[in-house]
Specification:
heterodimer; A: about 280 residues; mainly alpha; about 70% helix; B: alpha/beta; 6-stranded mixed sheet; 18 helices; 17 strands; globular
Chain lengths: ~280, ~500
């Protein structure tokens, strides 16, 4: 039964890796990989010497760190809270409501935010103005981009990400809870000493997977939020690859950027996996 | 179990085969069932949806060709054209409207498309393409497609005349007067609803086709680049007038005379905002006036528009100037060698292009079918009689016309007549881009990437987040990251052109 998955990885993940060759060439589509001229490390030199490089790397890492610190714990907390809700109907409806944003595309999420936050007639700014405050240009201020970005992710994905945790929680042995109760543990204590340790492997695995996707911050999302005024904090590898590669047609250069991005991701995963093993968990390999 | 695995494998493989079959089968020109030549056309769509068949059938009838359109929305033309070029999934005709884009330029230079220069004179309408136009559209002296001939300079200012009357101001002649109008429109409640909810300007996030570049022309900014007498090339943003234009925009912004979100406003929202009476000054293509007027029907019924194309910062007629959109070349209609296999096929397509430029097809693509979409008066003046239908069936074609100038039938709508007259007049004052036909490899490769540095800095300056020194820093970064190289290359290319003369 592993075969379809295997074929999928070979066809869509390993086979295209051959294309990485073009980052050492000045690739021209009509010449093909075979006839495009070799340029060695030219594109790598350009990447590391361009002033944009430091900006891209720091923006990507900062956003990643924010996502990890702020977003990652939220589904766990949410799952724990939902687990404590005893009323079935209430719990199910809450679950459904928090899932819904996941099924909307980023275009819709970002458009809704635009409607809320614009300066001319945006609801939030109108409320601020009504209370006598001065309007804030959320959409064009570099300092608002990161909070906006993280909040949108929380809104869209927090509910969906609880699914795995909730599933993990349901298989926790009920005897453990009973035993804890005998020892006089309160609800909060049970959560801390029983539920959390029980789902720890799941949390660690998801954390490693998350780190593996470090640099996959979500191109679509950021691309929609970017503009001339917040680019300094918002341009990340994904958006840069898109503009350089597809809009300006620098296929080789953008492949180089992508390759670098992949390498950083690989290093981080190996690091996280080692850390997990040190902490006595299984890791992912 | 084994049987199921085999079935799954078979399914996966056949799926993969199917996918590859889809990728390989498109775009062959040939003949269809009724013996008509089939021509596929990868085209740019400037409207919300592609045209319906009515007019298309007519065009096909006249040209005796079965046209297969693939439409690319204008907003995503860069990535779509580039992916098509990279994957080789092209059509017989490809509308290349972004000639400055590096991969498009490289593809042209690499000979992906037929060079059509030598064939033009064999066809009556194509023969009429002027030598100037052919030169402007050429790359290194070779013409790789049929140039799309547009007006040289079509921008200007559109103002609410009824609002001007209300606040008691004349039609502005200078940038200072324009500022007065913007101020009055913002502060004197021109729509008379008792609430201060209007602004002077409404602009969009576009420094070129929005207000900024046109205002720049009024201050005397060169169009893109300037070449001095002694052959020195300087970019527009190093001119004093560029700073003046930024200061002007900054004044508009800080005083609230312009929509505060202009840096993130889309064209559609800008036009709708204007039509809804949120602002009274629109800077853009002069022929947008008709569209704005149509859009305002039922919302702002007392809207009256006046178009202005003679604003200067000094008030002297001699200082009039207006930047030109790529010197009147709207792009190339190019024919890839991978699709158009031989000379005979190329000639068939050129014949089709020639037919498209005929008065008959031009009329179809512009006004539609007589007495269905438009009516004609005795002076050859066309009036659109069914705007909704025209927008659906005709308007999408207008951006595909190889030529937009010099036909007998003219639009009889007063706004159209006026905008045509003003755009015509603009030609006299047009400031051309002097490096348009010069070659700079660095610009081709990194130009648009570098331009981002300047665009970002310009916005920041206007919004007051960057001062003069900060803007100068951005220019220094631009120069260091490749700008200096571009300048040297343009100067060399300019010198070569001079030496050859």
């Amino acid at each position: 039964m592993i075969l379809p998955g295997f074929i999928y990885f070979v066809i869509f993940k390993y086979f295209p890796m051959g294309g990485l060759i073009i980052s050492f060439q000045d690739y021209q589509p009509y010449l093909g990989i075979r006839d495009s001229p070799w340029v060695g490390f030219k594109h790598f030199v350009r990447l590391f010497t361009e002033p944009t490089f430091a900006m891209l790397l720091s923006n990507t890492l900062i956003l990643f760190a924010l996502e990890l610190v702020i977003f990652f714990p939220i589904p766990i907390i949410l799952a724990l809270m939902m687990n404590e809700v005893r009323h079935r109907l209430f719990r199910n409806s809450i679950q459904t409501i928090v899932y819904i944003p996941h099924f909307m595309s980023w275009v819709i999420i970002v458009s809704i935010t635009y409607v809320f936050l614009s300066v001319d007639g945006g609801v939030v700014n109108e409320i601020i103005a009504a209370f006598g405050g001065s309007k804030i240009s959320f959409l064009t201020s570099p300092e608002w981009l990161r909070p906006m970005y993280i909040l949108q992710i929380i809104w869209k994905e927090a509910g969906w990400s609880t699914i795995i945790y909730l599933a993990a929680i349901t298989v926790v042995d009920t005897q453990l809870y009973e035993a804890a109760e005998m020892d006089g543990a309160s609800r909060l204590r049970k959560m801390w000493h029983v539920t959390l340790p029980a789902i720890r492997p799941v949390i660690i695995t998801l954390l490693i997977l998350k780190i593996g996707n470090t640099l996959e911050l979500g191109f679509e999302h950021m691309y929609l939020l970017l503009n001339s005024l917040n680019r300094e904090v918002g341009e990340i590898f994904d958006t840069y690859i898109f503009t350089a590669g597809l809009k300006n047609g620098q296929l080789s250069f953008s492949t180089t950027v992508g390759l670098f991005k992949g390498l950083v991701g690989l290093i981080l995963v190996m690091f996280a996996n080692r850390l997990a093993k040190k902490l006595g968990e299984d890791g992912v390999y | 179990m084994r049987y199921r695995t085999a079935k799954l494998l078979a399914l996966t493989l056949s799926g993969a085969l199917l996918l590859s079959a889809c990728a390989g089968g498109s775009g062959d020109s040939g003949t269809n069932a009724d013996g008509k030549t089939t021509i596929s056309w990868l085209n740019i769509m400037h409207t919300a949806s592609p045209p319906t068949d009515t007019v298309l059938n007519k065009i096909e009838e006249i040209t005796d060709v079965d046209i297969q359109f693939s439409w690319i929305p204008d907003a995503s033309k860069e990535e779509r054209l580039n992916t098509s070029l990279a994957s080789g999934s092209l059509a017989d005709i490809v509308s290349l409207t972004i000639l400055e884009n590096s991969s498009v330029r490289n593809a042209l230079k690499a000979g992906v498309f037929w060079e059509v220069g030598p064939y033009l004179d064999e066809f009556p309408n194509l023969k009429g393409i002027s030598q100037d136009m052919r030169n402007s559209a050429s790359i290194e002296g070779k013409l790789y497609g049929i140039p799309m001939q547009k007006q040289v300079a079509r921008n200007g200012v559109i103002i609410r005349k009824d609002w001007l009357d209300k606040v008691g101001l004349p039609v502005p002649k200078t940038t200072a007067e324009l500022m007065e109008v913007a101020k009055a429109f913002t502060e004197q409640d021109p729509d008379g609803n008792g609430v201060k909810d209007t602004t002077g300007f409404i602009d969009r996030s576009d420094l070129v086709f929005g207000a900024f570049k046109t205002l720049g022309s009024y201050f005397g900014t060169p169009s893109g680049w300037a070449i001095s007498e002694d052959g020195k090339v300087t970019p527009e943003f190093e001119s004093e007038s560029y700073i003046q234009a930024m200061d002007y925009m900054k004044e508009l912004y800080t005083n609230g005379y312009i929509n505060q979100d202009f840096a993130v406003t889309a064209k559609k929202d800008q036009q709708e905002g204007f039509a809804q009476g949120k602002a009274g000054i629109y800077v853009g293509a002069l022929f947008d006036s008709k569209g704005l007027f149509n859009l305002a029907q039922g919302v702002q019924d007392d809207m009256e528009l006046v178009m202005v194309n003679d604003i200067t910062s000094t008030g002297n007629e001699s200082d009039r100037a207006i930047w030109s959109t790529s010197n009147g070349v709207g792009g190339l209609l190019a024919f890839p060698k991978s699709e158009v296999k031989d000379e005979a096929e190329l000639k068939r397509i050129l014949k089709f292009m020639d037919d498209l430029m005929s008065e008959e097809v031009f009329t179809l693509m512009t006004y539609g079918i007589k007495d269905v979409h438009y009516s004609l008066d005795e002076n050859n003046g066309a009036t659109i009689i069914n705007t909704k239908l025209w927008e659906q069936e005709v308007q999408p074609f207008s951006s595909s016309r190889p030529n937009e100038n010099g036909y007998a039938i003219v639009d009889a709508d007063p706004l159209r007549i006026e905008s045509t007259r003003l755009i015509e007049e603009n030609t006299t004052f047009a400031v051309l881009n002097p490096v348009y036909s010069l070659e700079s490899p660095t610009f081709s490769e990194q130009g648009s990437e570098l331009q981002k540095i300047i665009t970002d800095a310009t916005y920041k300056y206007i919004l007051g987040k960057l001062d003069r020194a900060g803007f100068q820093n951005a220019i220094d970064t631009w120069r260091k990251s490749g700008g200096d190289k571009i300048i040297t290359e343009y100067e060399a290319a300019h010198q070569t052109v001079l030496n050859n003369k």
